[in-house]
Sequence to fold (433 residues):
Amino acid sequence: MSPGRAAAVTPPQPGGQLEWQNDLYQMACTQFRGVARTLDLDPDQYTRLIEPRRSLIVNLPIRLDSGELVNFTGYRVQHILTMGPTKGGLRFAPDLTLGQCGALAMWMTWKCALLGLPYGGAKGGVRCDPHALSVDEIERITRRYAAEVNPIVGPDEDIPAPDMGTGEREMAWFYDTYSQAARHAVPACVTGKPVALGGTPGRRQATGLGVVFTLEAALESEERPLEEQSFAIQGFGNVGAVVASELHARGARVVGIGDIGGAVSNPAGLDVPAVARWYFEHDTVAGFPGAETIAREELLELSCDVLVPAALEHQITEANAGRLRCRMVAEGANGPTTPVADEILAERGITVLPDILVSGGGVTVSYFEWVQAHQKYVWTESEIRERLRSQMRQALTSVIGTAEQLDVDLRTGALAVAVRRVAETAKLRAVFP
Ligand code: NAD
Fold:
């Protein structure tokens, strides 16, 4: 047989298809392969889980305010359809790719399974820079995207939520566009909506609060009260700003905060409400007068008890893991630590509380919002807060227990809980046809 013919009939390794030759996707695969080895996962389940079930790429012709017509690329990736509808964020970012959406969708599957939510993972978004667009342009992009992905989303199929570059405003436009097509209001088609449209109180703060609830429980298990610890936080958006405010309100010392424009540090503790006011006026924390302004990369290397990466992926890498000066990393962002950095941190005795656990508060409260939309019944904010706290604590307990039982780090422990649950469901439902 000629080499060309051999290549044509030899299927690529699972996870090795051309579409998924992307750094972030391969990072998610490396983590999955590691846990599959630990669990001695059935090869059929391995093959079913390593690549996303369904991916859609859409082209959005958008009229800019200038009158020019520009094409934007949008994606929606659904990792597994076996667990119920899929769920995951909508990201507007200038470097968004299909591979990134695939990785984030896979992590959503693990996150939902770990937290006991009846969803598979999804992720999507549009490759665009929302900071360079007007509000009208962002609205046109959101609505056209919602119309293009309509065939594969819906309250019982796939339910988007906010992620980087999107928030309540975009969810409101998505909800309206979907409802126009359905010819009646469908509040369960999206979560993270404004409260006035059937959003749930507490959703906006949920991911940040979940980070703090997990930290509170993890530190408690080490007999180190949260309010006596110091924290450095990368990111001052939906997640990071809530983490910083909540920690400050509880009396903890926030010694550093960073964002895309730079970072600030004060070993005595930052006045977080004053930083928030400065951010509101200047669109960055850099230059805040009550602190020293440092380069954004230096934030990660500040001396502190806990570092909270809450901005974006690939931040703690082989290049800087050896220089971190914290005792614990709590991953508020998705995928901030690479597998090689994980090994370096483990050798250095730095505990990593993994993303699929720590950043699970957002999707948990999204689930509460979706349940309320289906029930047409509204819960109180304190009910939501208490349920979230209890769900995060329960998940942490199962992660610590599994990690001890398998003698692995907390990331592998968390993935093991999740992958076992998904693989069991997939096995019971078997392969169609
Ligand atoms: P956001 O867009 O509201 O905020 C992102 C923050 O990161 C901003 O302050 C921005 O300035 C900063 N940032 C961007 N690039 C940076 C860089 N190179 N260096 C330093 N800072 C940088 O986004 P978000 O919703 O807060 O999401 C942050 C992370 O949390 C993402 O990884 C997201 O996937 C994850 N996450 C978000 C949610 C949610 O509910 N919003 C839920 C789970 C996970």
Q: What stands out?
A: The longest strand covers residues 54-63. The mean pLDDT is 95. The pocket of nicotinamide-adenine-dinucleotide is lined by residues 162-165, 207, 234-240, 258-260, 296, 310-312, 332-334, 359, 362 (CB under 6 Å).
